[in-house]
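User: Hey, quick favor. My workstation is busy. Could you predict this chain's structure for me?
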Amino acid sequence: MSTVVVIGAGISGLSCALNLADARPDLTIRVLEASDRLGGTILTERSDGWVCEAGPGDFVDRDPSTRRLIERLNLSDELITAGNAIRRRYIRHQGTLHSFPDSPTAVQKTKLLSEKGRLRFQFSPVLPAVREDQTVSEFAAAHLGDEAASVLLDPIVAGIYAGNPNELSARSVLPRLVNLAESGRRVCDALIGQGQGKLGQGSMISISGGMGRLIEALETELRDRVERNRPVVSITRGIGNWRVGVGGDNPEVIEADAVVSTLHGPAATHLLGSLNPEIEENLKEIPSAPVAVVHLGFNKKDLQRALDGFGYLIPSSEGGPVLGVKWTTSIFPKGRAPEGHVLMQVYVGGTRDPELATDEAGSILAARKEIAETLHIETKPVHVRVFTHRVGIPQYLRGHIKRVTAIESALSSLPGIYLAGTSLHGVGINACTTQSEEIAKKIVSTLPAKVASTNQAHLSLA
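Assistant: No problem, here it is.
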């Protein structure tokens, strides 16, 4: 019987394990989690009517992999889709909130850009493809103009990657826009919702009880295949297989036919780098940006303005450690806060202030200062919860695609070793489930079936 070890019990590891278990009941699957909690960055805390997400509280429904997983877990009846309010988004510019210009008419009227900046944006040219890997700032300035690059695209990228647009690879973090440009279409049309390639394609979806329900359902399905407090300390070659060293209170060495690592940052570099210097060298070049997610709950009567949209993002040119503010109860009006209250999430740190992101008290102060200055809410919040992500979000810097190619080439020389998670191909839930599904397919096609029951699959990986 073949054994597959999955390292890490976040959404990538758990979904990969379930795909494998469904497609190949003959496999021995062991999911090893170093901590005593499953889910990775996904964690839903429910308390006195407040539903607070530590990490992603929704996903953009682009690739069908996440939907397939949810259907497999019988959670479809619990899905909730964000309402039309999320189409109204704001940018904080010079201390004031301005609607994101999402139509040609709105571009003509917006005060986010000067007259010169509006004209440059509206009459953006179609440019020939560029071979080199441009940064987000370079790409945006070429296609939209300097002003729009700074005020419109900079905060969007910061809201997803918490990174610096002067360093992030446009091809890696904005692949749809780059592909759009290289196919001879205008990037500005995507930003204002015109034509194909629209930046906001895909519905924003969550689960009524929070995204933690997804992890709870995965745990129920996988049962004893998941092992807590089982840190993996080494991966070495065996005789025709791999030897996975496990530390903790009950150390052991597991003989595995395939190993899927979902780790990123120093942990991934330590484990996989020891197998091939090319992997180590390139993983070291993928840093991370720590982020704090501060939840602030208020009584509606204390608001100075209606929270009539998704929330707002803050360009780096504005300064300060806050990346943006998400109006949680505007996006999902039911079940996120007690009756008569509102909940918002303030994102602090990233590359703008990585040290503050690891300081809970400092992050709360920064969040409250931002809310007071921009939304004029001076009253003390009735609910506060902060989640700190010390490893944070991987940064796909200029040259990321070359690094990915080098890593995947090196992995191809290590049959049975796979890298999932957020290190290479995207940081959202949808990207993670898609990659995990693909890796499960590869393992299924590689490991020989040993019992007849392998045809009895709950989830098709075809």
